[in-house]
Amino acid sequence: MIQGGKHMEKEIGRLREILRNSNYTVALCGSGMTEESGFIGIKKPERAYEIERVYGASPEEIFTSSYYNTRPMQFFKFYHEEILDKIPEPGPSSHIMAAMERAGHLHCIITSNIFDQEKRGGCENVIDLHGTIFMNRCPHCGEYYSVEDIQNSKGVPYCMICHSVIRPLVSLFGEMVDSRIMTRTTEEIEKAEVLLLLGTTMQSEVFSNYVRYYNGHNLIIIHKEEHYMDHKADLVIVEEPGNVLCQLGY
Asked: In whole numbers, what is the pLDDT of the chain averaged over residues?
């Protein structure tokens, strides 16, 4: 486990060599990547407490299909104020990963984030596990709407064709990931020579079931916090992902 100093410089050199010798590298991007840009996850204790104080319910209760279906006014008040009003810009990691892609040293990015930071930062081969706020659809007639349509709506956004409540195409709490996305994700991880975990851990509730499909010998974690399962990785650098990636020379 590497944390700071000259030893970290040595391990960054090791990481650089691993990436440049890899024929297929896959990155898993967790909540730590949005935190780089200042967005604190709604389930983080300090933010969840404030949400419950303001809205009278926990984020796990509000950000659900049940709330969307039965309390759309409350759901979209929360969605506007806590999600759409706080969309983070792509962080340094997103731009560097795009450069890694162009150099042929990063082949697939799998993200749990819903803000399209990787694509907005220039990355191309991105799998959105939990969907994206930039795609919205009427569940009744199938008409698509932009995020600007939702932002400009007053209160609940209604379909202009059939007047049903528009649904953001993101995974709400308690919903399963689309089976086609799950299949593609496992296929990408299975063929990876190098697996990068950026801003997440092996035991995250999002990625733990996917990491077990990795068959290689270069599982690398770059995350600002230590985790008790880190010893199972081949290389761990305890640092903000952007602070490490920016030293790789892309």
From this structure: 94
